[in-house]
């Protein structure tokens, strides 16, 4: 189905609510928000073009503090001297890293005069490290990262370039774009809502990048809403990376029913995530695994989702309520919990639950009312395992 106008959505209780994008939306200041992938890539490209990476013996890293400070603020002035002769200013993040490499508590060091800090960190780099070398990453006069020598840097610019190969500028020149918006009053989703600083899902700082894109002009019908309208879902993915070591590369792909104003994802199903630590061989693994995985999902057909739904609905595992309870007991659910699942599934599906699909929906519905996050996630995992067995 293709749609260029707002369309009805619902059945949010049949999936989960994911807040990962909303957390980004809430926390990012204005200068970390971008209205297109083109603008975002220009930002990270500039950083990489100005950057240099240097692996050096730890004992050759010099911490420089004013010898005779005359003002109180100078007592916290600290710079890093590189073996090349360049002097750079550590960022808040990279200072924490270099303090960690020296075996020193960064939080405490930040309260001390830089003259003491320079001596303490220099001593730690020389005598507290079991590995001789450190890898320093600098750009435009700033030291952005200080890591161990085997840190495998996946550049933010490479990740953005990979996304642009499937999504263009991310604003509608391809099927993948910044999402539209849910209207709770009319229970409709508008894929054409304009991209603004308040709605964008493209972010970058001096520490990381995060991109969330959807194919919301091409919803997929997977069933019916309670009012008889089509139950529509569309594909989405988000990817994040930190070339300075504040987080692993993460690629998550899924199906969802709507995105609201604060960028919460509603009715999410089929969530899959690939995580890649910045280990020694991470750059080659990104080329060999993450990029093909992104392209495969972005270019794939919708047949897998529709086929999975139909298979789950066709997979009958019980002929009456007792067999239903026995089936759920075999999945490790208590009698009380199994009864709740059967009752919830009957309400949602409007018929006695008998198929894998019915039980998966019932489990998901019950899980949403569990206050403990770990218990909720564990139960939701049972629903995913059920669907995976027939997919």
Description:
- Helix content is 37%, strand content 23%.
- The protein is of the alpha+beta class and 391 residues long.
- The chain folds into three domains: 7-46 and 154-300, no CATH class; 51-139, no CATH class; 309-390.
- The strands form three sheets. Strands 2, 3, 12, 13, 14, 15, 16, 17 and 18 form a nine-stranded antiparallel β-sheet that branches. A six-stranded mixed β-sheet has the order 4-8-9-7-6-5.
- Strand 12 (202-204) and strand 13 form a beta hairpin.
- Helix 6 packs parallel to helix 7 (282-299).
- The longest helix has 18 residues, at 282-299.
In short:
The chain is of the alpha+beta class. It is 37% helix and 23% strand. It starts with 6 loop residues before the first strand and ends with a helix.
Secondary-structure map with pairings?
Elements: E1 7-8, E2 16-18, H1 20-27, E3 33-34, H2 37-49, E4 51-57, E5 62-64, E6 79-81, E7 87-90, H3 92-101, H4 106-109, H5 114-127, E8 133-139, E9 142-147, H6 156-167, E10 181-183, E11 188-190, E12 202-204, E13 209-214, E14 220-224, E15 230-241, E16 249-256, E17 258-259, E18 265-276, H7 282-299, H8 303-314, H9 321-330, H10 335-349, H11 356-367, H12 373-390
Parallel strand pairs: 7-9
Antiparallel strand pairs: 1-11, 2-18, 3-12, 4-8, 5-6, 6-7, 8-9, 10-11, 12-13, 13-15, 14-15, 15-16, 16-18, 17-18
